[in-house]
Amino acid sequence: MESTLRRVKAIGYEGVEFYGPFIHEPEMIKGLLEEIGLVNCGWHTEWKLLQADTIDATLDYHARAGTTTIIIPALGGPWEIGHQQSEDCADVWVHYAFRINELARLAEERNFRIGYHTHAHEFQTHFGESTPWSLLCEHTHSSILLELDTGNCIEAEADPAQAIADQSSRVQLVHCKPFSRKLGHETYIGSTNDDNDWPAILEACSRAGTEWLIVEHESETEYPQFYGAERCYAGLLEHLRQLQPAQDSED
Fold this sequence. Notes:
Distance between the termini: 42 Å
CATH architecture of the domain at 117-251: Alpha-Beta Barrel
Number of helices: 10
CATH superfamily of the domain at 117-251: Divalent-metal-dependent TIM barrel enzymes
């Protein structure tokens, strides 16, 4: 972990968002981040770790690790987290929304924020006029963050910039995921094959006051691991530089 964090910092990243089970001592993680100069901007925490019999231990771990933002990484979908695909319906997602509201109340008592990370199925699954995305937006409390994933949004044939604009006060974390309709995840931010409209996305983020742009790069062959992370950082930085003059001229 230490070598990974140091290399992330060397690339230029200012923070990291964690995912996965609690393997390392939380004090070690907090100490490394402070020493290296990286911010813990969130932790993707599985639904099973946020249940009545697990949440106290989960919140204790996060408090010791210095986490302030806890993101539910997924519900439903092809992974069948929380329910089977055969059970998928609007009522299931409304129930999730109410449960997330309860989790947020418990978390806020201990100075944590709760959020939810989007995948393609929240946009492309329809229950009449509703989708899981629209139901979560409607029925979760306004304090709950909506972490939009741009690549997953495009995969579902939705518009990431519009989704951010529609929920601008809540999209404080954005997963900047390069995605190509032809090549899938085998691309990077800055490539002509990447179908994200970064100027529009970043403009929407700027207007929304988004706190973190989080690179989630899933190439496994063409641009793997740190090579992809470096390309994405450079590409995102260039788009941000191009956005700045336009903002300055408006000011």
